[in-house]
Design goal:
Blueprint (H helix, E strand, L loop, with lengths): L16 H10 L6 H12 L9 H22 L2 E3 L3 H15 L7 H11 L1 H9 L4 H7 L2 H16 L3 H7 E2 L2 E2 L6 H17 L5 H17 L2 H17 L1 H24 L4 H7 L6 H19 L8 H9 L12 H9 L1 H17 L4 H14 L8 H10 L6 E3 L2 H29 L3 H7 L4 H10 L3 H12 L6 H13 L3 H13 L5 H20 L3 H12 L1 H11 L17 H17 L1
Antiparallel strand pairs: 1-4, 2-3
Helix pairs in contact: 1-8, 2-8, 3-5, 3-6, 3-21, 4-5, 4-18, 6-20, 8-9, 8-10, 8-11, 10-11, 10-12, 10-19, 11-13, 12-13, 15-16, 15-17, 17-18, 19-20, 21-22, 23-24, 24-25, 25-26, 26-27, 27-28, 28-30
Length: 589
């Protein structure tokens, strides 16, 4: 490809990322200022909690908007690659906006758009650089991984850091999620291995990254690590010794921990790959149930819509915000159209694009891992994935009017992201009152407020507010049922509790709560001599065991194989009460 502009990518060398870091940030070279800034962003973004939280996405949107403005002003041009891949990828992300009108919860879908609009800006940034420059910036990834592994190792001995970087004894890094952190480290390994390491310093870095992957306790990543080792051992003689040393060292580390007899959660998890497949079966269970949801909602259900609709489709005991499968999550969030567009981009880039070998390897590893996890909820992973894609030739646009319009749009976007940064940031920091004033459509804040409500008026207010925009929240229905019971409006109480159970069908406590309230109801009507209502509510109570049996039947084979099993048996006291109630009805009739 013909190189344009004054930036000439250097030839590929065997320098380690530490050398690249030194050259990039300590060498004063005005000709590479843009690339240095871009590399600095890639270095810093993972430390912002992997860009998982919406407020970090909003902050990133501000940074990228400013950077694009800087590039336009500095270069006096804007480069665009308008082709099959870029247009379809734009459709994927814009679908998060298009789905809002029919989403389960439009407010949360809007927040989802705040998050997934940011990759569009990153795409625009990537288009401003040559592919060779993007390749050079990859070196930031293993460097960040090494730093995070070292900090996480230190965190084992510092409680404050452990709360941030360690998750149940597993390395989570600043991603705070071991599985995706392991994927990030594996990408770093690929970058180092593709540079054909020969220097001792690079080998040390590979050892650190490998040890980091092991200490994440990610079983999916461990299997993929073995595959990576086999791939290089069989396909590259020059790297065979390196990967065999890494593989042997990994096996030795795991063996030493097992021999020591120490109760080390991370290593124990790795040894349970075959003996306790509950986590893997759980992933299949999510996918099974999620596929049925997608088939019934082909236009998508919006951001977090899967989470809210989950109780209607689940056939096992679990509660997850994300389905742990990139394709299904995308289809559920943004619709089948977005899903098909994403698949088309992947196929076209891999088979018909100009992806380099390293791009393809990273591309494959990210997709393979994300089929069983929620990696694409971390925008850092989304950004790396975008960097691997082939966007083809860029065309430069010099028209001052259009450049000015672009800058104006970016300034408006900066204001948009700033507003949500403040609102979402306050929510993250526990300042829900301030956040709610700025985002009265945030259902999660309202659910929190309902859970803290101490008066009947407050319960009614927050429950009504939630149900006005989202009819799937069991807690809101239960709150309304409690208020109705206090007001002796027992008919409404039953209706609301039926809805609460409908949206939380595996919670035995709700069935027991309904039974207790029905007992109070029958006592009330019996005292009034209203035997017709006593009989009416007794029949409702006697149907509760049938509802529990229906949930047992609904539980799928996969649902019976995971660790969390349904608890759908009433207590002996409750069963005895229902038996007596049945005898009473028979005598009454």
């Amino acid at each position: 490809m013909k190189k344009t502009g004054k930036y000439k990518p250097q030839s590929k060398t065997n320098r380690s990322p530490l050398h690249f870091f030194r050259d990039t940030f300590l060498t004063i070279n005005s000709n590479s200022l843009e690339l240095r800034i871009f590399s600095l962003m890639l270095f810093l973004f993972p430390f912002l909690l992997g860009l998982f939280f919406e407020f970090t996405a909003a902050f990133t949107g501000i940074v990228l908007s400013f950077f694009i403005c800087f590039l336009i002003i500095r270069k006096k041009t804007l480069r665009l690659a308008l082709n099959f891949n870029s247009i379809l990828l734009l459709l994927v992300f814009f679908s998060y906006l298009l789905v809002i009108p029919w989403s389960v919860d439009w407010g949360m879908s809007l927040i989802g758009w705040v998050k997934f609009s940011v990759p569009i800006l990153f795409m625009l940034v990537v288009m401003q650089f040559e592919e060779a420059e993007i390749q050079k910036s990859y070196a930031m990834i293993p460097l960040v991984g090494i730093i995070m592994v070292i900090l996480s190792g230190i965190a084992y001995f510092i409680p404050f850091l452990a709360n941030i970087l360690i998750d149940a004894g597993r390395l989570g890094g600043f991603f705070q999620y071991p599985n995706t952190f392991a994927l990030f480290l594996m990408i770093g390994m690929l970058i180092l291995l593709e540079n054909k390491p020969s220097e001792p310093g690079t080998m040390i870095q590979l050892v650190i990254l490998t040890l980091g992957i092991i200490l994440t306790g990610s079983r999916i990543s461990l299997v993929m690590l073995v595959i990576v080792f086999l791939f290089y051992a069989l396909s590259n003689k020059a790297l065979r010794k390196t990967v065999l040393l890494l593989a042997g060292g990994s096996l030795l580390v795991v063996s030493l921990f097992l021999i020591s007899g120490l109760d080390f959660n991370t290593i124990n998890r790795l040894t349970e790959i075959l003996t306790n497949p509950s986590t893997l079966l759980g992933r299949f269970l999510y996918a099974r149930d999620g596929l049925l949801m997608l088939l019934e909602n082909p236009l998508g259900v919006g951001y977090l819509g899967y989470y809210y609709l989950q109780p209607q489709f689940q056939t096992g005991v679990y509660t997850v915000k994300f389905i742990h499968n990139t394709l299904l999550q995308l289809g559920l969030d943004a619709g089948i159209t977005a899903l098909l567009a994403f698949i088309a981009v992947c196929f076209n880039s891999f088979f018909h694009g100009q992806m380099k070998r390293l791009d393809k390897l990273i591309f494959i590893v990210i997709l393979a891992h994300s089929f069983l996890d929620m990696d694409f909820q971390y925008l850092v992973i989304v950004f790396i994935f975008i960097m691997t894609l082939s966007f083809g030739e860029r065309k430069s646009y010099f028209n001052r009017k259009w450049l000015g319009l672009t800058i104006s749009i970016l300034v408006i976007l900066t204001g948009f992201y700033t507003y949500f940064l403040i609102a979402l940031g306050n929510d993250y920091l526990g300042k829900q009152n301030t956040a709610y004033q700025m985002m009265p459509f945030d259902t999660e804040i309202k659910i929190y407020a309902l859970s803290q409500a101490g008066t009947t008026e407050a319960v009614t207010y927050w429950a009504d507010s939630i149900l006005s925009s989202n009819q799937t929240i069991a807690l809101a229905y239960k709150g309304k049922a409690m208020v109705a019971a206090e007001e002796k409006n027992y008919e409404e109480m039953v209706l609301y509790m039926e809805q609460a159970i409908n949206w939380n069908p595996y919670d035995l406590g709700d069935y027991q709560f309904l039974l207790a309230k029905l007992s109070e109801t029958m006592t009330y009507y019996n005292a009034q001599g209203d035997l017709a209502n006593v009989q009416k509510y007794a029949e409702i109570a006697l149907d509760i065991p049938n509802q529990l049996d229906a949930m047992k039947t609904r539980t799928s084979w996969l649902g019976t194989k995971i660790t969390d099993q349904p608890e759908l048996e009433l207590s002996d006291t409750e069963k005895q009460y229902l038996k007596q109630l049945q005898e009473y009805l028979e005598a009454f009739n």
